[in-house]
Inverse folding.
């Protein structure tokens, strides 16, 4: 699926870039990497013009809408970490809210390249680094706010990943993940075989990506277990859910 989202001929250009250069770079990064996230670069320019994996054309706006209520409107003086940042949507939003230092990490070099480009066009000072969640020891600091959005269910080593997130959190972690939607007071996690995922057009269990789908009780308990005394349910909608873990 494709859509022309950049036909606006506004004369205002993003900071320090000509409109022509921005459009050319967006197209080049789309062809080479693919835009999973839709970033509004101003002057009528959006990064995303096609669907890659069955996501919405404005992804991750719905995901952001599900967690935004837990994000302070004013982040002045705060430090923020975005784990699995992709093209930087959440990291850029945090910087727009006044965060003093924002770091976004992702395992894919191409996503980091996209994120750095978007930050440059928007004139936002955000640090992006190619790192795995399992490399968070290299960061050597803690953050006031950590985004752990759309990543938990992809983590092969689930408990280790949650421990790594806890190690860099000084206050709040916002967690969003694919879940097993069945309600139960018993915490359990459904294992998804890599061979079971048949793509975004598959039906039933063949549509389930990632490795681990916790139920909401398990998601909450995972963060209790690594030292967060307060874990609040943020939302549950179909096969997605979120919690806020606080020190």
């Amino acid at each position: 699926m494709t859509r022309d989202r950049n036909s606006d001929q506004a004369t205002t250009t993003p900071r320090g870039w000509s409109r022509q250069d921005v459009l050319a770079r967006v197209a080049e990064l789309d062809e080479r990497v693919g835009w999973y996230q839709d970033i509004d670069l101003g002057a009528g320019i959006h990064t995303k013009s096609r669907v890659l994996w069955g996501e919405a054309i404005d992804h991750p706006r719905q995901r952001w809408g599900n967690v935004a209520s837990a994000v302070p409107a004013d982040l002045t003086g705060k430090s923020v970490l975005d784990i699995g940042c992709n093209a930087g949507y959440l990291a850029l939003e945090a910087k727009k809210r006044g965060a003093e230092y924002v770091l976004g990490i992702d395992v894919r070099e191409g996503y980091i390249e996209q994120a750095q480009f978007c930050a440059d066009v928007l004139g936002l000072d955000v640090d992006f680094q190619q790192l795995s969640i399992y490399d968070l020891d290299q960061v050597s600091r803690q953050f006031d706010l950590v985004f752990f959005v759309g990543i938990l269910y992809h983590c092969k080593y689930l408990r280790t990943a949650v421990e790594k997130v806890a190690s860099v959190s000084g206050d709040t972690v916002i967690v969003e993940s694919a879940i097993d939607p069945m309600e139960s007071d018993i915490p359990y996690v459904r294992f998804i075989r890599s061979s079971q995922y048949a793509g975004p057009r598959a039906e039933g269990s063949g549509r389930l990506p990632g490795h681990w789908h916790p139920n909401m009780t398990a998601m909450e308990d995972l963060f209790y277990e690594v030292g967060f005394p307060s874990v609040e349910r943020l939302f549950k909608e179909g096969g997605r859910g979120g919690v806020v873990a606080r020190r």
